[in-house]
Design a protein that fits this description.
With about 260 residues, the chain is mainly α. Helix content is about 60%, strand content about 5%.
Length: about 260
């Protein structure tokens, strides 16, 4: 049976991007994926790519095997009596969790790009400082735009470099906040240069998690973003409320809940 989806053979950065596109174009509930249908459409895409001699990489083949495995598990009958004592988790759950997390980071990357485009089309008056009192400081908002642009440039460069994925759990936003907190505590009164840290990350997902961590720390008033010179490096410095913010576990609990 032919797939109801019209394939245009778009290029995807990874198999999760392809799966999300298949799911969203058909308005399928991501938490209740019709695995047989999606598997058939995914394999059809791979076949069309093969016919056009498009190299998709091993991760696409691995995902195909994963989908087939999930499909086979869902076809196997389960003993009702066994389910009473040891209910089996939905075979799709791990894939659903990965898709939801990937979509979250994908949306964050798109937001980053949109903010970058806005920044490039916004003109600010360099003489604004002469109209402000010492207590008024618009620098944070301007610096956030600078941060967005800088991260956008970094992500563009990262797409063209080799990326080495390390096996293990993915680093989340809460993990990045703890990492930055430790770096700031170790640095004392010295700034922490955020783009240097971003360049050390091994994946685009980790870079986006780092960016979101910076935004969360700014929102919590744990850090301030500084740029000493007009074209100088963007840095993080401890806010005067830094210790107060991290004296309670509640902010981190809230963040972990938001990003799970």
């Amino acid at each position: 049976m032919s797939s109801p989806l019209n394939f245009h053979l778009e290029r995807y950065e990874g198999p999760l991007d392809l799966l999300l596109d298949l799911i969203r174009k058909q308005q399928i509930d991501i938490r209740d994926i019709p695995i047989a249908t999606i598997t058939a459409q995914y394999l059809e895409y791979l076949e069309k790519a093969r016919e056009l001699d498009i190299d998709l990489g091993a991760e696409f083949v691995y995902m195909a095997a994963t989908l087939i495995h999930i499909k086979s598990r869902m076809l196997l009958p389960r003993d009702p009596e066994l389910d009473k004592d040891h209910p089996e988790e939905d075979p799709r759950q791990e894939l659903v969790d990965r898709l939801l997390e990937h979509e979250k980071f994908k949306n964050a990357a798109e937001m980053l790009q949109q903010k970058r485009l806005i920044e490039e089309n916004v003109w600010s008056n360099p003489q604004i400082q002469s109209f402000l009192s010492d207590e008024e400081d618009p620098g944070l908002a301007i610096t956030l735009y600078d941060l967005v642009k800088a991260f956008g440039d970094l992500l563009e460069r990262a797409k063209n470099r080799p990326v080495y994925e390390v096996a293990g759990a993915d680093v989340g936003v809460a993990d990045m906040i703890q990492y930055l907190r430790s770096a700031l505590e170790s640095a004392g009164d010295q700034p922490v240069f955020i783009l240097r840290i971003a360049e050390q990350q091994r994946s685009l997902r980790a870079m986006i998690a780092l960016f979101l961590a910076v935004l969360e720390m700014v929102k919590m008033q744990a850090v301030v973003i500084t740029q000493k010179d007009l074209f100088g490096e963007i840095a993080l410095e401890r806010h005067k409320l830094f210790d107060t913010v991290f004296s309670s576990e509640q902010p981190m609990i809230a963040i972990e809940k938001d990003y799970t």
